[in-house]
Amino acid sequence: MEMWIKEAQIEDAAMIYKVKETLVTKQTEYQDLAIVESNRFGRMLLLDGIVQTTVADEYVYHEMITHIPLFTHPNPEKVLVVGGGDGGAIREVLKHPSVKKAVLCEIDKCVVEECMKYLPEISCELENPRCEVFIGDGIKYVHEHKDEFDVIIVDSTDPFGAAEGLFGGSFYKEISECLTKDGIFVAQTETPFYLPEVVKKVFSDAREVFPVTKLFMAAIPTYPGGYWSFTIGSKMYDPEEADLPDELGFDTRYYTKKLHKACFALPKYVEELVK
25, 30, 86, 220: least CB-packed within 10 angstroms? Predict the structure, then answer.
């Protein structure tokens, strides 16, 4: 018998995946969690029925949400990842030798535990001595840590339910206060094709807080529309003017020096959202 999962994040469109096996399902304190073995994308993490990451294409998202800000900042030593309990962002952050400490602040401990068990390729650096895993509310954590982080990465789920408070002006103001005087923040900010109003609002909110605010894009096969936006806010440094090293110092599968600059070239329909 064939098994399929249907993701209906967008009310009038859906993505469907053929599944070999269900590895784990559980209702956590915050959400429905499932990890399945799919035919095309390997193991997949789903929260509330929405695909968060897959073994086959996770590198796109995790490389872009981390290396753009970390190569923009001249000396990122302390990094905070809000959300991202799968550990992929932490894995990429710790590839940068300047990083002395990376904090993962994840509200749902079950996400961390199950990803360490079933997605070791993604969560493999969560026990690195330079990584601190803090289980708790990211909004509260940011509020209680002022002037502390060089880079903050908001690796949240979609702006519904537990993650809703991670999108918006008041939180971005708190992030600015949590950053050092030349700090940078980046967040995943949804699909401009299906959720243009979300992209427009979060970009507008970020631009009210950060002197330099830019939108960049990446092609992620398992995210609705396949074309995803990220918003970067910086107190001082323009990511398009970043002084990139001749050699990255580690291997990547998606991010390159050329792409670092090119990803800020937006299609006209996206450009119009952020004017």
Answer: 25
